């Protein structure tokens, strides 16, 4: 009888630990923005990281596609500067191998999700990766960036920037868009 009780208790503890692990995993994927007024949830395979800089609220590593050696990076931050000014800055972070215009090749579209306007930006080329405003840029050929700008009616503007090797970003494009389309207003 005693061994049966111990087995039942061990089983219940294991179930609680697994359930707690699932909750912890879900919480690691969830991003509460604007003091909890907005919520986004990342795909399961994306790993939450400690942000590299204090301006970034959330950061995730997005698994590299087969053949790529570098993971993608998703950063989420609230910032100012205006929508067009930030998109222009992003254009300046990319150059084209043939010398063409990044602005002309970029895809920008606007949609409404969760009652909020969202601006989606798609850029590719050689990315000038800079660790900070005074740090020298490292050129990363064949990179791509998907970004979303969410200017809320009552809680500031949020910028989501997902970039990395083209193959990795292309492989995760549907997941990124699904995450944005899943924006919830609480």
Structure summarized in a few sentences:
With 186 residues, the chain is α+β, with helices and mostly antiparallel strands. Helices cover 31% and strands 38% of the residues. Strand 3 and strand 4 (58-62) form a beta hairpin.
Topology:
Layout: H1 2-29, E1 30-33, E2 38-41, E3 47-49, E4 58-62, E5 72-78, H2 83-92, E6 94-95, H3 102-105, E7 107-113, E8 116-129, E9 138-151, E10 157-165, H4 166-181, E11 184-185
Antiparallel strand pairs: 1-2, 2-11, 3-4, 4-5, 5-10, 6-8, 7-8, 8-9, 9-10
Explained architecture:
- The protein has helices at residues 2-29, 83-92, 102-105, 166-181, and strands at 30-33, 38-41, 47-49, 58-62, 72-78, 94-95, 107-113, 116-129, 138-151, 157-165, 184-185.
- The chain is an alpha+beta fold and 186 residues long.
- Strands 3, 4, 5, 6, 7, 8, 9 and 10 form an eight-stranded antiparallel β-sheet that branches. It has a three-stranded antiparallel β-sheet with strand order 1-2-11.
- A hairpin with a 4-residue loop joins strand 1 and strand 2 (38-41).
- The longest helix is centred in the first third of the chain and has 28 residues, at 2-29.
The stretches of 5 or more residues where confidence is low (pLDDT under 50) are 20-25
Q: What's the count of strands?
A: 11
Q: What share of residues are in beta strands? A: 35-45%
Number of helices: 4
Based on CA inertia axes, which overall geometry fits? globular
Overall pLDDT confidence: 88
Order of helices and strands: HEEEEEHEHEEEEHE
Specify the structural class: alpha+beta
Helix content: 25-40%
Quaternary state reads: single chain
Radius of gyration: 20 Å
Largest sheet: 8 strands, antiparallel
Terminal residue distance:
50 Å
